[in-house]
């Protein structure tokens, strides 16, 4: 056995030296081996999601048999509000810093994001910045390479991979730590969620049009579950199915169906290439990008400003260089030599320390502040 006392009886100093070197090599190899990652199920979440989905299924049944039309419309309104709180608020404003907003807009978006109940803004943004920085690696909280179910919702049923915690600690979150609205929501998040995700949504139908508490409760579970699945589709479906018009070497795709459901968040290949673009897409088509319409409307009211975007020329050059040719034809040079882009060159958004000077210079700012 290596390292046993029998090695001391070898005849020559050369053999002894060789043995020591071998032992040192073995020890260094052992120390470099990472412990195997094992799944640790979060049973509390498993039980909670099981109840939520059973309640949501019953909510579907009640929608067609007992629930009043007003309650259904109220649920749709809340779902859109919650989705916009995620897309315009937690995602484009707080995570990617793709635009700035004055405090009334930030406060309203915070309330809307609370309606969606997908963790507080700080935690949501931290996980999403880590996702962009380390896309489809073990450090990605919802690594799509681990399968559709994991990237869709399974990641919430397991303890995070150690790399998520380790590399997540390298992400700068100082901007959100200085935001009083983010801090206030984080401090009172449990009470805010109870009020805006459950109590008020259930109480309004009961009080204003005499909906039964039973029907209102289950319809609210349906609304909440639907909001969750729409958001999760961006992490799963938009990382598996669709075109890679802007960078064929990364996982995220352009998925129109997800874009429609997620009020503009399905143009995911573009978004991962240009995460600082407030439109999260090449086009600002309001029909399939309601989030952009909201931000532009708020800009007209003077509430949103410093909206960052990218010129058509910059987009074309990048798509021709690294895209799959579905949007713009590939350059002959990129076809012959290859232009590989990896997660190591990814940025989480405006303010990432790894942004290159040319990337900063290529950004156009709309409604620029003084």
Automatic annotation (TrEMBL):
<keyword id="KW-0444">Lipid biosynthesis</keyword>
<comment type="similarity">
    <text>Belongs to the fatty acid desaturase type 1 family.</text>
</comment>
<feature type="transmembrane region" description="Helical">
    <location>
        <begin position="73"/>
        <end position="94"/>
    </location>
</feature>
<feature type="transmembrane region" description="Helical">
    <location>
        <begin position="188"/>
        <end position="210"/>
    </location>
</feature>
<dbReference type="InterPro" id="IPR009160">
    <property type="entry name" value="Acyl-CoA_deSatase_haem/ster-bd"/>
</dbReference>
<dbReference type="Pfam" id="PF00487">
    <property type="entry name" value="FA_desaturase"/>
</dbReference>
<dbReference type="GO" id="GO:0004768">
    <property type="term" value="F:stearoyl-CoA 9-desaturase activity"/>
</dbReference>
<feature type="region of interest" description="Disordered">
    <location>
        <begin position="322"/>
        <end position="354"/>
    </location>
</feature>
<keyword id="KW-0275">Fatty acid biosynthesis</keyword>
<feature type="domain" description="Fatty acid desaturase">
    <location>
        <begin position="74"/>
        <end position="275"/>
    </location>
</feature>
<feature type="region of interest" description="Disordered">
    <location>
        <begin position="1"/>
        <end position="27"/>
    </location>
</feature>
<keyword id="KW-0560">Oxidoreductase</keyword>
<dbReference type="GO" id="GO:0006636">
    <property type="term" value="P:unsaturated fatty acid biosynthetic process"/>
</dbReference>
<keyword id="KW-1133">Transmembrane helix</keyword>
<dbReference type="GO" id="GO:0005789">
    <property type="term" value="C:endoplasmic reticulum membrane"/>
</dbReference>
<protein>
    <recommendedName>
        <fullName>Fatty acid desaturase domain-containing protein</fullName>
    </recommendedName>
</protein>
<feature type="transmembrane region" description="Helical">
    <location>
        <begin position="41"/>
        <end position="61"/>
    </location>
</feature>
<keyword id="KW-0472">Membrane</keyword>
<dbReference type="InterPro" id="IPR005804">
    <property type="entry name" value="FA_desaturase_dom"/>
</dbReference>
<dbReference type="GO" id="GO:0005506">
    <property type="term" value="F:iron ion binding"/>
</dbReference>
<keyword id="KW-0276">Fatty acid metabolism</keyword>
<keyword id="KW-0408">Iron</keyword>
<keyword id="KW-0812">Transmembrane</keyword>
<keyword id="KW-0443">Lipid metabolism</keyword>
<dbReference type="InterPro" id="IPR015876">
    <property type="entry name" value="Acyl-CoA_DS"/>
</dbReference>
């Amino acid at each position: 056995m290596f390292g046993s006392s029998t090695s001391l009886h070898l005849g020559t100093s050369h053999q002894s030296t060789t043995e020591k070197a071998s032992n040192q090599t073995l020890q260094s190899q052992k120390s470099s081996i990472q412990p195997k990652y094992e799944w640790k199920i979060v049973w509390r979440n498993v039980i909670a999601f099981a109840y939520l989905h059973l309640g949501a299924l019953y909510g579907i049944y009640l929608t067609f048999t007992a629930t009043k039309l007003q309650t259904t419309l109220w649920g749709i309104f809340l779902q859109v509000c919650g989705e916009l709180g995620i897309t315009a608020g937690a995602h484009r404003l707080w995570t990617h810093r793709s635009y700035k907003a004055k405090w009334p807009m930030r406060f309203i978006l915070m309330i809307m994001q609370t309606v969606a109940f997908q963790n507080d803004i700080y935690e949501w943004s931290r996980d999403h910045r880590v996702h962009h920085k380390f896309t489809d690696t073990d450090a990605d909280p919802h690594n799509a390479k681990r399968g559709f179910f994991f990237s869709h919702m399974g990641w919430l049923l397991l303890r995070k991979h150690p790399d998520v915690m380790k590399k997540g600690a390298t992400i700068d979150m100082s901007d959100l730590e200085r935001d009083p609205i983010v801090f206030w929501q984080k401090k009172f998040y449990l009470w805010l969620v109870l009020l805006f995700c459950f109590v008020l949504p259930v109480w309004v139908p009961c009080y204003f049009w005499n909906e039964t508490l039973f029907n209102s409760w289950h319809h609210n579970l349906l609304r909440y579950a639907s909001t969750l699945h729409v958001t999760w589709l961006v992490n799963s479906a938009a990382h598996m199915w669709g075109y890679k018009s802007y960078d064929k070497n990364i996982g995220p795709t352009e998925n129109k169906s997800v874009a429609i459901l997620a009020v503009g968040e399905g143009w995911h290949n573009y978004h991962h290439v240009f995460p600082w673009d407030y439109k999260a897409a090449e086009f600002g088509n309001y029909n399939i990008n309601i989030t952009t319409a909201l931000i532009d409307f708020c800009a007209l009211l003077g509430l949103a400003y410093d909206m960052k975007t990218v010129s058509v020329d910059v987009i074309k050059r990048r798509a021709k260089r690294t895209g799959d040719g579905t949007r713009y034809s590939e350059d002959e040079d990129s076809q012959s030599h290859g232009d590989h882009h990896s997660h190591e060159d990814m940025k989480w958004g405006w303010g990432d320390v790894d942004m290159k000077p040319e990337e900063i210079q290529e950004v156009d700012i709309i409604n620029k502040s003084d």
